[in-house]
Amino acid sequence: MKGKAFGFLKKPEPEISPPVRVTHQQHVDIDPRSSTGFKGLPPRWRQVLDASGISREQVNANPEAVLQVLDFHINRQEGMPSPNMAYPNGNPYNMPKYPSPHYGGMRNPSPYQPQYGASPAVQRRFNPPRDNRSFMYKQHVKPPPNGPPPGGFSPNKGRSPNAAGRGQLGPIAKVPSRQTLKYAMIRAVEIQKANPYSKYSIVGDKLGEGATGMVFQCLDKQTGKKRAMKISPSDMIDDVRNEIAMHRLTSNHPNICGFLEAFDYKNELFMIIELMNGGALTGYVTNNVKWNEPEIAYVCKQMLQGLSFMHSQHRLHRDIKSDNVLLDLNGEVKLGDFGFAVNLTKDQPTRGSIVGTPYWMAPELIQGKQYDGKIDVWSTGITAIEMAEGEPPLLEVAPLKALLLITTNKPPRLKKGPGSVQWSGEFKHFIKCTLRKDPVVRGSSAGLLMHPFLKKSCSRSYFAGFIHQAKKAKDKAKKKKS
Fold it and tell me: Which residues fall in a compositionally biased region of kind Pro residues (predicted)?
């Protein structure tokens, strides 16, 4: 009886629950004697390092920076939560250990396959693509280290263009709260549940790919006007909504592509955008087109006018490069592709997420630091070099190695001009102002509009003639190849 009685009173054996939120910490030490230069490097990290093209000498010279770009690639670009890394001297970069929701074009693969047989909108992986160009994954102000040119120019002076968007200097918009921005973005997103092909028909080949989809030329059946149609899979609805909101809120400026309307139809999202019939700037810097300073200054001025307007509205583009600078045969230059654009708020006056394309990325972005509109200024400087030299610096090296060199090398500078021509002191100083590694002393988009180099800008009509001739030469070369 006692046994039975005690049996009823017997406590049940405790259940052991599975571990929750366990993190594995791996310690990596610097070891000059090992083949990688590190001791305890995870296998995946070692594999990526071996394929990166980063030399043993570069590892020995900058071990912390090498770990930093490996962390950048593994955690953010591959989208995998890797083990917690214990850096040899702690983690000086304060980098998060899990991927940000947005990091360049390197999103999760999608089964999306449009009915007309085009390739998926997002398909790149770390294995270096055939064209590195397409690889996507405050304070006391110090005096400029190189001194200003004659006239006392200061790259951080000036105020941003006003909302009228004519490039003139004007007041800066009030910084919105997170709640105010949320309501503004909701109001800006209007997607019709309708068939876009009843109003537009696709004509010609694919124009290109953006951060969230593919872009085609289309024809408005009612007006006969040509437009651009960007098509994305419906599972990217959150990204597309952000792009629509940023584009619509920003498109009331002559240097930013206009946004027209959007559709949701048969598991695809469609954005109808202003068509720039000259295409992307990329096509004119990589086809043996000779650029002189007046043309380069003109494009830089137009870019900075668009960026200055965006920054005055507390918005960042975050993917400035020649692919996203669009030209029209009448001489217009406009910024496009707002797939990575973001709005700053009172609650979040800077950003820290990783987006963009490696060769145009600012050092502070790669290092996981907080950043502001100065990252767009850095990318503008790289694009200026691209016009002068035909490609951005470091394009010949693998993307991961490029990230390391951007953070450890001195800022890029102009090489000698074409033939015996030398670039002017104003152009060289403009590049220095845009590519200062410390964003505090880097020029602002508004301040750089007053730089002496931009006074060399050609007229719009002259630039239109330049683009016409360049396009003829480009089309002729294309026909020869085919």
Answer: 142-152
**Strand intervals (E) in 210-328:** 214-220, 226-233, 259-265, 268-274, 279-280, 315-316, 325-327
Beta strand spans in 32-122 (E): 38-39, 84-86
Please tell me the distance from the alpha carbon of residue 476 to that of residue 7, in angstroms, as a whole number. Answer: 94
Is 157 annotated in a binding site? The answer is no
- What lies within 8 Å, CB to CB, of 482 at 6+ separation is none
Q: What are phi and psi of 442, to 5 degrees?
A: -70, 145
Residue with tokens 């790919």: 209
What is the mean pLDDT for each group of 10 consecutive residues in the chain (482 residues)?
46 54 62 80 81 81 81 60 40 31 28 30 32 48 40 52 39 69 72 95 85 89 95 90 86 92 94 94 86 97 96 91 95 92 68 74 90 95 95 91 93 78 92 96 96 97 95 80 70
User: Whole-structure pTM over 0.85, yes or no?
Assistant: no
Instruction: Decide if domain 178-274 falls under CATH 2.40.260.10.
Output: no
Per domain, the residue ranges of the chain are: 25-86, 157-174+279-481, 178-274
What CATH superfamily classification does 25-86 receive? CRIB domain (3.90.810.10)
Homologous superfamily in CATH for domain 157-174+279-481: Transferase(Phosphotransferase) domain 1 (1.10.510.10)
